[in-house]
């Protein structure tokens, strides 16, 4: 999902007025239109036929353009480039000749997403809701739509305030779903301004954690017993090399003091 958070992709989505949504975690079989429809099944069948040589999928103009693209890449060998070009032609042929408007429309309708059909959506749920739970959910559909339009997602706190029942029985993860990594969250409008700001904050936090882990590993590799006050200085702003240098000086000083004391005792 991180590729959809890159600046050029976000700009493309904005220019084409596309709102990019992510389905809830672990719900692809009932909430992902491409899974519910025959999209994947038809695509796989088509690609299998193309691999067996039953259909001519070659597009000479596309092949020429792709060759120019891969020719400028020094990291991809000629043999790999040929495979990529051949595979991309198969995918383009499938997209143009197999994925029809009806398949896409039926996928969204089968999920109850578009046109919005609350009953169709809820019938696919594996959890046995009570009738009162249905009533609460149905009554707050306008509120949740407003949340998605305003910021791209519904906070767990907001659903609690609405009285929507929580069926997240996971005992392994205690972090609220709206604070987890993107692929573990509920439905999210990925390219909304609020979502992009949250993702940027999460990415910075992950990078900070990774840097802290690397710092600890570097200290461990130094194989020195770093005093607590010096180790505390080994933060993100304090280079590991300076921590190690200070520790060496302190250790050397301690050795000298021990040697002097032993000499005094002998005298």
What does this protein structure show overall?
- The protein has 267 residues and is an all-alpha fold.
- It has 3 domains: 20-114, no CATH class; 127-165 and 176-219, no CATH class; 222-267.
- The chain contains 14 helices and 2 strands; from the N terminus they run αβααααααααααβααα.
- The protein has helices spanning 7-15, 28-31, 33-36, 39-51, 60-71, 78-97, 101-111, 118-123, 131-139, 141-151, 156-162, 193-221, 228-232, 240-266, and strands at 21-22, 188-189.
- Strands 1-2 form a two-stranded antiparallel sheet.
- The longest helix has 29 residues, at 193-221.
- The mean pLDDT is 81.
Shape: flat
Which secondary-structure class do the elements indicate? mainly alpha
Strand order of the largest sheet: 1-2
Order of helices and strands: HEHHHHHHHHHHEHHH
Radius of gyration: 29 Å
Quick rundown:
With 267 residues, this protein is an all-alpha fold.
Identify the notable features of this structure and list them briefly.
mainly alpha, 63% helix, two-stranded antiparallel ribbon, 267 residues, 3 domains, 1% strand, 2 strands
Explain the layout of strands and helices.
Elements (H helix, E strand, L loop, with lengths): L6 H9 L5 E2 L5 H4 L1 H4 L2 H13 L8 H12 L6 H20 L3 H11 L6 H6 L7 H9 L1 H11 L4 H7 L25 E2 L3 H29 L6 H5 L7 H27 L1
Antiparallel strand pairs: 1-2
